[in-house]
Amino acid sequence: MSCCRHCEGVEDVFSRELAHNDLDDYRRKGASRQTHMLLAALHRAGVEGRNLLDVGGGVGAIQHELFAAGLNAATQVDASSAYLAASQEEAARRGHAERVTYIHGNFVDVADTLDSADYVTLDRVICCYPDMPALVSRSAARARHLYALVYPRDRWWSRLGIHLLNLNFWLRRNPFRVFVHPSAQVDAIAAQAGLKLHSRQFAGLWQVVIYARAG
Predict the structure, then answer these.
(1) Sign of the CA dihedral 102, 98, 145, 41?
(2) What is the pLDDT of residues 89-109, one digit of tens each?
(3) Residue (of 39, 83, 29) closest to 63 by Cα position
(4) Is 181 helix (H, G, I), strand (E, B) or coil?
(5) Which residue in 21, 45, 85, 148 has the fewest CB atoms around it within 10 Å?
(6) Cα–Cα distance between 30 and 34 in angstroms, integer?
(7) Closest CA to 89 of 60, 50, 49, 120
C-alpha cells in the first residue's frame, strides 16, 4: 500500500466528529494514561524554555500540558485537518495559540522544511503509518534532546486486535490501516539517528518509549 493512498483515508477516520468527541473527552478527563506517562518523562527532563515538535498531535494534549509547565513554543504537524482545528481551538481557549505553528500534511513529505526541536513526540502515530522507517528516521533526526513515542506493543494479541480493526477498514473500503511495528526495528532506526534508549514503560496495549541524544 502506498503512503499516499493510505493518507487518503486519514481524513475519513480522523473526522471532525471524532476530533470534537476527543476534544470533549480531553477537556473533561485530561490526557490518557499513556500520554501522562510520556509527559512525566518530559517534565523530569525539564520543560521551561524548551520547544516541541509534535507529530500527529491530535487535539494537542501534549503541547497544552507542556505550555502550562513553561514550554516556549511548539509545532504540530498533522494529516487530519479536523484534529488540527480542534488543537487550535483548545490552544486559543488556553491563550497560547500564537506560540504554536500548525502544519497540515504528511510529516514525511514536509520533514525537510522543519527545524529541529528540543523534544519530538509521536503519541500513537507510528502505528498509523505504513512506512515506519521513513517516519521514525526523519522525526528522530529532528530531536535535539529527547524523542518520545507511544505505539502498540509487539505481541500476538495486539496483532490480532489490529488485524480485526483493519478488517473493518477493508469492509468499509477505507485504505487507512493500523500497524504493529517491531520494537527492535524502531530502536535500531532511533539508534542510527544518534539516539539512545532511555526508558520503556507499558500501559496495556501501549508502550511509552523515550530516547535521548548523547550529550
Answers:
(1) negative
(2) 999 999 999 999 999 999 999
(3) 39
(4) coil
(5) 21
(6) 12
(7) 60
Q: Which cell numbers in the block locate residue 141?
A: 533526526
CA–CA distances in Å: residue 121 to residues 16, 55, 87, 168, 214: 23, 6, 15, 28, 18
CA atoms in the 13 A half-sphere facing the CB of 30: 8
Grid cell in block for residue 71: 514550554
Contact 123, 56 (CB under 8 A): yes
Q: Would you say the C-alpha torsion 8, 92, 145, 179 has a positive or negative sign? A: negative
Q: Work out the number of other CB atoms within 10 angstroms of the CB of residue 54.
A: 26
Give percent of the chain above pLDDT 70.
Answer: 95
Cell of 189: 532506526
Question: Which CATH number does 3-213 carry?
Answer: 3.40.50.150
DSSP notation for 161-172: HHHHHHHHHHHT
Mean pLDDT of the chain: 94
What confidence score (pLDDT) does residue 10 get? 82
Give the other-Cβ count within 10 Å of 5's Cβ: 12
SS3 content of the chain, % helix, strand, coil (to 5): 50, 25, 25
According to the model, what pLDDT value does residue 1 have?
Answer: 41
